[in-house]
Amino acid sequence: MPTMKYTPAEASALTNLPIRTVRRLMDRRLIRPRRLQTGRTVQRLLSWEQLVYLRLEAEGLALLPVAERRRIAKQIEADAGVDVVSVSEGSALLIQVKTVRKELDARLKKLKRAESVIVEDQETMRGTPVYRGTRIPVELIADMLNQGAGIDEILEGYPALDREKIELAPLYVRAFPRRGRPAARPWAKRKPVRTTRHRRNTATPT
User: Fold this and answer.
1) Contact (Cβ atoms closer than 8 angstroms) between residue 125 and residue 117
2) Is the pLDDT of residue 147 over 90?
3) What pTM, to 2 d.p., does this model score?
4) Which of 36, 81, 161, 174 would you label with 23, given CA atoms 20 to 30 Å apart?
5) DSSP assignment string, the chain
6) pLDDT per residue as tens digits for the range 179-188
7) What average pLDDT score do residues 22-40 get?
């Protein structure tokens, strides 16, 4: 079972909940993240059990009364190995926590894979996240997917990538949003351009 802590952005990417929903649930104290202070900055970090609860929210738990949701959240945090949770005492409605935990674990492995093939180096495009060994911005690929480009179309323009790397782009961008003012993105709304070299004919015309 993972023991590390997760930022709200990572929680959003892993649970497929909008970041604003994650923050709202923390503000309403349905989940109580750990607060880590670094200088004047206070960061809220979520546990693995809290991510499990957030994933249940994405699966429809948000339809229940707040008091019931808070009880379920506390039960999951108190018993990390719980497989099934009842909606209320004596209720026939059960929630399969084990299944959600497996889904989260698989998604976490994808995020770790993304971190292994994507790098951020100030000496390469001023720290813009790019695929390792290339200068291809991950945000570019995520933008293209959001605009409806197909994987085969992207592969045609960027043969240095593969299907897996392309599929990981949206997850990485969502989990690790860039801080501060958004950087200029000259690639936005542009299709990839492939360059082809042609041999010049140097023969003297007769």
Assistant:
1) no
2) yes
3) 0.80
4) 81
5) -----B-HHHHHHHHT--HHHHHHHHHTTSS-PEEEEETTEEEEEB-HHHHHHHHHHHTTGGGS-HHHHHHHHHHHHH-TT--EEESSTT-S-EEEHHHHHHHHHHHHHHHHHHHHHEE--TTTGGG--EETTS--BHHHHHHHHHTT--HHHHHHH-TTS-HHHHHHHHHHHHHSPPPSSPPP-TTTT-------------PPP-
6) 754 444 544 5
7) 90
Give the tokens for residue 196. 């082809």
Strands 118-119 and 130-131: antiparallel
- In total, the chain counts a number of residues equal to 206
Write the pLDDT tens digit of every residue in 64-75. 889 999 999 998
Q: Which of 101, 95, 97 is nearest to 63 (CA)?
A: 95
CB-based burial, 163-188: b 16+ in 10 Å, e otherwise: eebbebbbbbbbbbeeeeeeeeeeee
